[in-house]
Every structure is written in structure tokens, then in C-alpha cells.
């Protein structure tokens, strides 16, 4: 890799964006701590799901670095576990939304005609739906009534995958519109016409030539959507429709702390602060990527 390669130039421009650089460092640290949460808990000899009512609402100490919650569970360890769930939902949901939106957008933009009109009207219909009530309705559906075995429907893993699927099915519209607009611009370029002249099939042109050239804008949109999906997951968990206890997420930690704001404000302050910092960090990182992927920003810098 030479110093003038596109990847190096993008990386240099990203690191010149101070807020994006700090956000990237914060997110890498947060992700590393969240992934290492089971190892950290094992090293400290703490089970974040184990309750001890005799040690509820303890202040920070050498054993419990941030104190304990209303059920005597270690608050620091639950913050790490909650971060793993919230980040998984945000990142996985954003990636699934990007894939779904990219496929719909590139097909609509390249093939055009009635299919384009049908797909875009469907996209408009999803955008027009009130998002939070729609998510609440989807999350409130009892999977057992849809034929899912009770043992699977009540498991923590199924609950997590279900939330990821719900946020992905409602978050693809931005990616679809963005990729469609890029496709309309790219399908008239010389490299697309050359591929058509050489007899390349539409699927190959769409996914081998057009979509990679629209990847920059899609990456930026996906990065910025992660914060929004983390907020949505936190909202659903706060309402009791997302990640179910005893599994921790920042949203259900806030729900459990809402009656203890006066006696133990840290229980609400810390998960709320983590949600705020994580969403802001992803938004700053998205801004930095947008400038870094724009060649014109080199002249401005």
C-alpha cells in the first residue's frame, strides 16, 4: 500500500477531523470493553445477573466500582453487558438495514420503470408510518401466537434477534433512497455503458459495478444510523418491549432506575450518559467519514 493510495488518503482526512478521531477512539474502547465484559466479570469474581438484596443501592467501593443497583447487582458490570447488547442491536440492525436498502435502491434505480415506481411508493409508505408506534406494535406481537415454540420465544437470544430484525425492517428506507439516487447517476457513466456493451448481465452491472461505487455514501449513512437504532432499542427496552431482564441493556437499566432518581441518581445517570455519548460519537464519526470520503475536502483542509 503506497502513501498515495485511496485508503490512506481517506484515513488521513478522517484523522484530521478532530471530533471524528476522538469519537472513533471512544467507540473502539467501548466496543473492546463490551466484548471483554464476560472476561472482566470473571476476573473480578462478579456475576452481573446475580441479585443480592442485602447489598442493594451500595455506593461505589473497591469491590463494586460504581456501586450496586436496586437488586444488588454490580452497576459497572451491567453497564458493560448493556453496552454489548445495545451496540450489537445498533450495529447489526444498521448493517441489515443497509443491505436491504441497498438491494432495493440499486434494483429500483437501475431497472427503473414500473418496478422503480412500485418500490419507491412502498418506501414512501414505510416512511409515512409513525416510527415509534409501529415499533411498539411490532415488538408487542406475541411470537408464540405466530407458531414459535414457547421455549424459544422466551429465550434471551430470540428476544435479541427479534429486536434486531424489527429495527432493521423499519430502518432501510434512507439507504434505499440514497442508493437509488446514486444508481441513477452512475448508470449513465462510461464504465456502466462499457459493461453493457460487453454483454454484462444487469445483476452483474448492479452489484459488481454500480453498488461498489455507491459504497461511500452508504457507509456514511449506515454509520450515522447506528446511533438512531441504539436510541430506538433503548426506547423499546425502556418501555418493556425490547431486551428483557435479566439481560441488561441501557434502556432497561433506565427503566429500572426511574423510581430511584432521588435515592440513587447514578442508576439513571450512567446508562443515560452512555446512550448520549455513544449516539453523539457515531454521529461525529459519520460526519468525519462524509468529509474523508469526499475528495474535495483535501483542498479545503
What does this structure look like?
The protein is mainly alpha-helical and 301 residues long. It has one domain (6-40, 67-300): MetI-like fold. The chain is 72% helix and 0% strand. The chain is built from 15 helices and no strands. α4 (75-111) runs parallel beside α14 (266-292) and α12 (215-238) packs parallel to α13. The two termini are 23 Å apart.
Helices and strands, with pairings:
Blueprint: H1 6-16, H2 18-35, H3 37-44, H4 75-111, H5 113-128, H6 131-140, H7 150-153, H8 156-170, H9 173-186, H10 190-197, H11 202-213, H12 215-238, H13 250-257, H14 266-292, H15 297-300
Could you say what the CATH architecture is? Orthogonal Bundle
CATH topology: MetI-like fold
The number of helices is 15
Distance between the termini: 23 Å
Element-by-element helix/strand order: HHHHHHHHHHHHHHH
Give the CATH H-level superfamily.
MetI-like
Helix percentage range: over 70%
Radius of gyration: 22 Å
Top-tier CATH class: Mainly Alpha
Beta content: under 5%
Shape: globular
Largest sheet: none
Residue runs with pLDDT of under 50 for 5 or more positions = none
Please outline what is shown here.
The protein is mainly α and 301 residues long. It has a single domain, classed as MetI-like (MetI-like fold, Orthogonal Bundle), CATH 1.10.3720.10.
